[in-house]
Batch of 4 targets.
Target 1
Amino acid sequence: MNYLLGVDLGTSGTKTVLFDEDGNVIASKTIEYPLYQEKNGWAEQEPEDWWNAVVQGVQAVLQASGVDVADIKGIGLSGQMHGLVMLDENGEVLRRSIIWCDQRTGEEVEDMNRMLGAEKIIQITANPAVTGFTAAKILWVKKHEPELYAKCAHILLPKDYIRYKLTGEYATEVSDASGMQLMDVAKRTWSDEILEGLGIEKRLLGKMYESQDVTGEVHQEAAALTGLAAGTIVVGGAGDNPAAAIGTGIVSQGKAFTTIGTSAVVYAVSDRMALDPKGRVHTLCASVPGKWTVMSCTQAAGLSLQWLRNHVCTPEMAEAAEKGVDPYEIMTAEAARVPIGSEKLIYLPYLMGERSPHPDPDCRGVFFGLSAMHERPHLIRSVMEGISFSQWECVEVFREMGVPIEDMMICGGGGRSPFWRQMLADMYGCSVSTVQSDQGGALGAAILAGVGAGIYSDLETACDALVRKKDSSEPNMAANGAYAKYFTLYKELYRTLFQSFKDLKNI
């Protein structure tokens, strides 16, 4: 039997999963690590924490599975997108990684628009200049830490740092790299015009590959640390959401998925490169050769519910501990007792600023309509509805762009909740389905490795064989109409508060 290893480098932890060639999970291990937020709007992590999590995760799955490492035919990498990893000429990390949700780069975005022109940035990179993407982070370090920037010899994305530690290769691939804002997305290559305009040397960037291409082999030092066989191939892999798309079978036009984790994403595949000139959603290269994606990102989705759990829902956490269940199960059951609209309580999920459909680092979370009659269950349902309203607003943008959505899958922690799944189906007005395997990005990365190793002929064939639907929720159009009344007000609230968010920042 042949085996494949999928490594999914997330924000809260790295999941390492060993699959057989039929897509069955043989062993899995997740290692967590901290997030550092020294200032309001900042978010950083230590790359060495990621590498240690990979080493420990690989060791654990090899020990648990007992497989012959010679039978592991390939490794695929998936990871949080847009993070900045800077290495010196010896390959040593120069500073903590500024990760995807960091919002410090508002001035650098303005610099980018001044240096290149907003229209040219969209024309070439397929997206407006935004705080979350890597280019603005590079400019921030260049401006605020010039002595450190002068030592920089290599710029990598988070998962590509793991590739370097495994293989010694400085490389990346199109799906993740197109989220750096340094690519000509239509041509699937680095953009000389963007790099020269921003004063970033191309030599700092990794070699570009397609996601299924072989980018290197595990070297002796990494083999000794992890227990893997030296010479095992490592393919390009994908950003976390492109990898999750493959893991849920989203490899052709008309298919889409919603994932609700720390952030929330709606992701659809398109046969053509579709642009939103308003910059409300992102256009990136797909992990499928010759295809593109449209992707939204709500910065604080599951993070909003986690914040509520940690700071408000102490009784629910105590009850969950007593019953031996996940606190979110208790919270969701309480939310289900509250009617649609949370009895006139609306939540805006902007705890970390926002990317989609409002590229605005200054907006912040809001409870609107809070009254003395509201209790914790109202707050819980309101947060879940606010997160879902954000996804609905993004789906509206997709359809406006002419990107069809005929089949919606769901993954991430939110996908495990039948209540939340039904809420999204009611809002979207289409069926929402889970897949039998909930491994998402790790499975997608492993499938890419399988194509690179020649186990599967192509991604479409692999997904047809390995990805199966499990549960489906059909839309209730009466509920859709009830939600729509609140949705209209939800959308209006951002426009109403836009200037107030700016004023708050400047106090």
Target 2
Amino acid sequence: MYSSHKAMRKSKLCCAVSIISIVLLSSLVYAQTQKGELKLNSDIESSIRPGEKHRYQVKLKKNKFAFFKLYQKGVDVLLTTYSPNGEKVADFDSPNGTQGAEFASIVSETDGTYILEIRALGNTGPQGKYSLKIASIEPAAKTESAKVDQIFKPWENTDTPGAAVAVVKDGKIAYSKGYGMANLEYDIPIKPNTVFHIASVSKQFTTFSILLLESDGKLSLDDDLRKHIPELPSFGKKITLRHLAH
């Protein structure tokens, strides 16, 4: 009786373990889906839920630069690239929530099949969609200027705002170029000499300059503002440089 009861318990335990294993295996298969090979300029659209991973293969020759564009449609995703030997290379994720573009790139060091993984962030939430394509494949940059161009590849187009970039070495501009558009409505591209309205961006530089003056002992952050701008009216309370810095 005891042996029979023990054998029955063992049988039930094995059965439970088998069921759990099947459930876990099913969850693993559900969470990570192999989506096949990506082709240049071939648009793919797919649905994905939080917690799911979609993996795409990308076959590249050595010393190539592959640039990917993904558009989120109601889901926040993280893009991760892997080398042919399965090692993680880089993560790509912009702070744009569940809508908008995500960009990724691969620089191939060897011939082989690389992986682009798309993971929907979070564990719960509604199903969303994304569209994905390889926007371009070109030789990997060798010169410094070409490397800058590939870094700014996401903004080198006529349908998004962008940036003017200058590389300064030994007090001289070594490289400058504009990427993207200064005005979308009038199709005005950004050039190296494009004028930007920096507005509040200037505040951090002003504060940094004041901190340099303080480190030289020329002023204190707790100085009354009227010590330096005596023509400023009195507002009944002491206003300091520290107040304005914050």
Target 3
Amino acid sequence: WESRRVVVRHLRVAVPGLPPSLNGFRIGQVTDIHIARDLTQLHHLDRALRLLADQRLDILCATGDLCDEPRQFVAVLRLLSQVPTRLGHFACVGNHELFLGMDVVRRAYDRSQVQLLEDESVRLGALRLSAVGYAMSGRSPRLSLHDVPAQLDDALHERTAGEPTATVLLAHHPHVYTQLAGRNVALTLSGHTHGGQLGLGDGSIVEPLYPYARGLYRHPAGDASAGQLFVSSGLGHWLPCRVNCPPEAVVIELCAV
């Protein structure tokens, strides 16, 4: 039953040194939708996006693993683009986009109003929105942390010294966060974990095994330059079983400290 629910999770994130124009900036996030005949259905996504429609979003961000069937990818992006925003719709890829084939994925994005960011960034006023892809080595589906720093170099290289902006990073896998020391990123948005599909308060039962599983985190070394990490438990599922961890669409409001 809980796998068929959808909730809107509201989160206020205090950002030191936030430019005044970004105080109250609202970011919608959806992730890990896994649209497929035997997984998540389009009507489930449509229901979630309708809940976001009246949230006065400045941007909507999709952080990967959106669709597992090539023929439905365009429909997924069309639904995402229909959510009202002030400044647009953006996305990064997850490992399932790589499994699907990046040629298929890029063609779908080319036909949509959702902008795919691949190891690059865009400036939206005082916000620098950056994104990295999913680094894989060989046939292993695991994140290749060794390759992440080069991706971050590419994604962040357009920033200039003294640029009066705050940087938000889209990274499907939350372990990208471990590579952010010294990068001056205010907030990273991730997914991938589905929250373990087992919730414990605002976190997850699986956190002892997977430390960045669900919720808001600060860098373990206390490095302010790494900012904060938010891991959404996502809209879809691997198996239709969730306990205290319902599918979610997220609304994040940035605020000054």
Target 4
Amino acid sequence: IVKEASSLNCPVLVHAEDYQDCDCGIKTAKEKNLDGLNAWSQSRSPDSEVKSIKTICNFCRKYSCTVYFVHIGSSSALEQIKEEKQKGTKIFVETCPHYLTLSHENQNGYLAKVMPPIRSKNDITSVWSAVENNQIDTIGTDHVANQLKLKLDGENVWGALAGFPGIGTLLPILLSEGVNKGRISLNQLVNLTSRNASSFFGLTSKGSLENGFDADVTMINLKHESKVTSSLFGGFSDYLVYDGWNLKGWPVKTIVRGNIVAEDFEVIGKPGFGKFVTRSLS
């Protein structure tokens, strides 16, 4: 895959976990009757991320291919990526809001089960440090639009569905926990959520307010405070891992190609307005 992608000048996106290691870890944890998000994290340990990162980077250097690591959330993974960059691997890194805010030490139940797992409070600190120092290029959501009855279809963490909804809380989390707490600037926020991804994926009409780009604008109110509820966002999902969090800083208007599509927490865009964005591999 890496060889073929390189011949097309196309980056490879990698979910960095070694699945053989994870399968062994899960089997061992079940045999010991372990449960909870801590057991889930241990069964899919950061070591499996490191092993995967080493493997794919060896191929990427061999074939001169760029790799984009998705949803990175552990200090071990970040350290290994730093080492691989020093060896000459062309790497871009994405994290998600839950790796900046949630740990298995402060979460009860199974709602925050995700792959790779949320880690420790120390890992949260490491990920924020990487964001602040521009060692992370983008922040995505890893959004999974499921419902509570699907999520908790089991009596323990092993039966719970992995993944949770996260699109609606992406900007409020980054504004509240990032910008308003002085961890990142607004310019960094724009780069992390828009400009860097547009550039990396070759979306030539997106990611800038310059002439010739689509008039895509998100207006925010840094002082607005609201409590997170699933009813606030609507849609298919009926729960949020951030339910009850009071966040300061919210988007209040969304403009796509010069047209207002959302305002004051109401979607007013019409079905069919969305447009497929093409990209070139050259």
